Structures are given as C-alpha cells and as structure tokens.
Amino acid sequence: VAGCVPQGKQNADYIQGLSVIGVQQIDRVVEVVEETLKGNSVRMFGSKREEGKKIGGAKLDLPKIRRNPLVEIIAINTGCLNQCTYCKTKHARGELGSYPPEEIVARAVQSFQEGVCEIWLTSEDTGAYGRDIGSSLPELLWQLVEVIPEGCRLRLGMTNPPYIMDHLDEMAKILNHDRVYSFLHVPVQAGSDAVLFDMKREYTISQFEELVNHLKSHVPGITIITDIICGFPTETDEDFQETMELVKRHNFPSLFINQFFPRPGTPAAKMKRIPTQIVKSRTRELSEYFQTVKPYEGREGKIYSVLVTETSHDGNYYVAHNEFYEQVLVPKLPELMGKMFKVRVVSTSKFSMIGELIDDSQVIRPSLADALQLGQVSGGAGKEATENSAPLRQTNTSTLMQPSQLHKYFKTTFILVLSVAVFIRILQIVHIL
Hints:
The protein is built from 13 helices and 17 strands. By secondary structure, it is an alpha/beta fold. The strands form six sheets. Strands 13-14-15-17-16 form a five-stranded mixed β-barrel. The chain has a three-stranded parallel beta sheet with strand order 5-8-9, with helices on one face. It has a three-stranded parallel beta sheet with strand order 10-11-12. The radius of gyration is 23 Å and the shape is globular. The two termini are 16 Å apart. 36% of the residues are buried.
C-alpha cells in the first residue's frame, strides 16, 4: 500500500502485516514488491534527506509514463509550512521540502524535447516553494519561462494565500507572460475571519481579497478559482453568510465545495460537529448559487488563441484552453491535437465555450517534437537528445528504450497501478472515502 493516508496513520489496523511505502519512497516500489513476494512485510515511511535536510522526494528524472503525452506534471515541493487544524497533509508529508530549481528546469527541458506542449507545476502549496532552500516561486518561474518553447504553456498549481502575498508584483508579471496561463488556484476555505482563525489559516479575508483584487487589476482577464469548506465545527450561521457574501462578490468561475470531514488525529476532529442537516443545507445553498454564475455568458464572437491537449469526457470534442486557462471545446479533427490556433466562440455553457476555427487561422505545433506514444516511457528519449546535442526541433525523440529497461519499467507501472487500486478499496472499506 502506498500513499499519504497510511503515511499519516502508520499504526492503522487495516495496514498491519502489509508492505507499505511512504510518500517519499515511491521510487523504491520494485524493491518493496520483490521483498513482499518473498513473504516479507516492508514498511518505508522515512523522508529523504541530504546533508540532514529534507528534500523534495524521489528524483524528478525517473522514467515515467505520462497519462497525457502532451502534458508534463512536475512536483516542485512536498510538505507544507502550515498547521491547518482540519488537514492531514502535515501528518503525512511533513515539513516543506523543495526540489532544487535546476532539477525542475532540467525535467522541463527534457519534457519539451519529448513533445510535451504544456507543463503543470504541482505541490501541496506552490507559493511556499523555495523557502527551505533560499529560493522562491518567482525565481523558479523566471528560470522556467526561459526554457518554455514559443506557443507552449505553463500552468501553476494551487497556492495558499500567506506565502504568495509576499510576491504579488512579481507574480503579476509572470502571470502576464505569454507562456504562462493567467490562472491561479487560491483556496480561501471560509469567508469568515473567525473560522479562518480556528482553522489556523494564517490570513484574513481582507488579505485574501487584497490578493485577488491586486491580481485582477494587474493581470487583465485572469482566472482565479478557490475552495470552500462548509460546516467547519465552529462555523455559525453568520459565518456562513460571510462566506456567501465573499463568493457573491467575486463570482469565482470554478468553486470546489467540500463538506467538513473530521480527519483522525487532527485538532478539528476533536471539536463538536455541526448537525449534518445544517452542513448539507449550507452546502446546498452555496452550490445552488454557484450554479447561477455563468462566467462565459456573452462571449459569443470573441476570438481566442487556444492550445489543444485532450479529448472531452463525452468524446465529441477536443478540449483546448485559452490564455486564461478557460475551457474551449473545438472540432474533433486529428490534425488539431497538440496544436495552437485561433477560434471564434459560437456558444457557451456553464463550464466551457465552443469555438470554431477561424478560416485564415494558422495551425501551429508549438512542441519541439512529436509527442511520445501513449504508454511510451519518458526518460530515454530526452537523454539521447541531450547527448547528441542536435537542434531541438530536429531531434528524434520517438526512440524507445531497450526491451530489458521497458520490461522493468512497465512492471513497475503495473505494480503501482495495482497498489493504488488495492489502496482505494481499503479506504472504501474503512469509510475514509
């Protein structure tokens, strides 16, 4: 079993006798499986350290198979600096551990050489990046935009308000860059200062709104999305109405609404809970209001430059995003996948727009090479390209790794998928999901 839940509760009955891998030991999964097959029970929960300091985790250049060959997901740090009373992240992932910027940049370069056209930066809190290694998120981002090919784009992951507040001006400049989506996910969790205090969120509503208003005024058209927890134990009716007012003031185009759940071992789990019917009522009221928000209404006729990276859930369209990471559905023509072009919006819905190609629009492939095939291992091609030192747009990045290597890595991937499936089933059994 692998993941943050067993890491956070290592003595749980349902994992006793099983082999368990902690969140920073996933690169040792083959060793653990081999020992388990011999009848041994292995438990690896330690954090990776260099010179006594916690580091990000498994190396970023490990071979991997991308779920989407056009999108590379790069973890920039693990753990966090907060002590939120409802959250298990600190229990499972510990203190902040940032990857060195040069390692992140190298992974980005390799990904572009393998045909990736979009990079997502992820972590528990991207805004805290670098505070443990004498760097910062803006410093990392400025290094990354230098290696992003023209037409390719970077999407920044979730950031909590406290740490991003220190870099608002620099972040505004970066989010205006034509190779970075003007998009930010900033969870507020509640609209009441009293509730935020009890959550130990380390900011006030006025500070959150200062952040939102600053970015909106300095990054025209930016998409800012957020999260709300309904029914935190100390939330009163007045507190909840403050949350409603906050949401109505900003009409976030995307809103992740969660009901409070007492995570075992957290301070909030010891607090007296609000009656379930009240929590459901508040969740319903907030959800019903959110459904009335139509961020794309009136966009018909607007022209956007979009980048296509995936297929819609119903299979009828390709999914593209404009510079604000707003979803635009386009015709499902094979020659458009992985390409950038201009569209005119012809209709809109709650969560997306539908666009048609402009007749004279040039269809451009921004990536440096053809993307790897679905299921092909990342890692070998990028190294070969680097060693040959050929011009990036001419490098052959479709070379497969040696059969023996492929066998090992596909075996690892199969074991990982099987472990995740078993882990989810265990969680269902113990009612955690």
